[in-house]
Specification:
elongated; mainly alpha; 6 helices; endosome
Length: 228
């Protein structure tokens, strides 16, 4: 098998899923990052050698700088590879997300189609009309039950009103007859009590007259004494 066959697989071989491809890219990315860190440490080490031998051993310093350049070139290549792998990984992750979203949407569409499979729009409209009709019937029945049934509608209301007026007039006559006591029902006053009250009143008048006369005599005497 050729190198590319080993690397990319045989022709007609089933392609890996997006999840598997993303996992492989992450593994490769981690490996390159570790190699990148290793090269950075090697570059620092060669720089230290060049600094230490710059004035003492010029040949050793130049060899160290050459190795540093080689490591820097490898590091630059790894940086480019990491950028490419990162773009591929992000594209695969986006494709994987889109695939999951589309799969979910398709499943939802299939479920909705299955739910509507046994439904007919005309049948739904007919069913709703039947429901509305039955609701109207139920309302009419409730109204009929709630209305009181009237019995005895053949009674003459004018006759009832006349009878009521007669009853009211009868009650009014009773009230007028019982307004106050008659002359025959007035209580009798004893004659002896009347005579006694008359004597007391007359005696009081005599007493007031005597008191007034005594007062006048006293005033007259004082006036005559003052004149002398």
């Amino acid at each position: 098998m050729s190198f590319f066959g080993k690397m990319f697989g045989k022709k007609g071989e089933q392609a890996p899923t997006t999840g598997e491809a993303i996992q492989k890219l992450r593994e490769t990315e981690n490996m390159l990052i570790k190699k990148q860190e290793f090269l950075e440490s090697k570059i620092e080490a060669e720089l230290d050698i060049a600094r230490k031998n710059g004035s003492k051993n010029k040949r050793v310093a130049i060899q160290a700088l050459k190795r540093k350049k080689k490591y820097e070139k490898q590091l630059q290549q790894i940086d480019g590879t990491l950028s490419t792998i990162e773009m591929q990984r992000e594209a695969l992750e986006s494709a994987n997300t889109n695939t999951a979203v589309l799969t979910t949407m398709k499943n939802a569409a299939d479920a909705l189609k299955a739910a509507h499979n046994n439904m007919d729009v005309d049948q739904i409209h007919d069913m709703m009309d039947d429901i509305a009709e039955q609701q109207n019937i139920a309302t009419e029945i409730s109204d009929a039950i709630s209305n009181p049934v009237s019995f005895g509608q053949d009674i003459d209301e004018d006759e009832l009103e006349k009878e009521l007026e007669e009853l009211e007039q009868e009650e009014l006559d009773k009230e007028l007859l019982g307004v106050g006591p008659s002359a025959t029902e007035l209580p009798e006053v004893p004659s002896d009590e009347i005579k006694e009250k008359a004597k007391e009143k007359k005696k009081g008048l005599y007493s007031q007259s005597a008191t007034a006369a005594d007062t006048d005599d006293k005033d007259l005497k004082e006036l005559m004494a003052w004149a002398e």
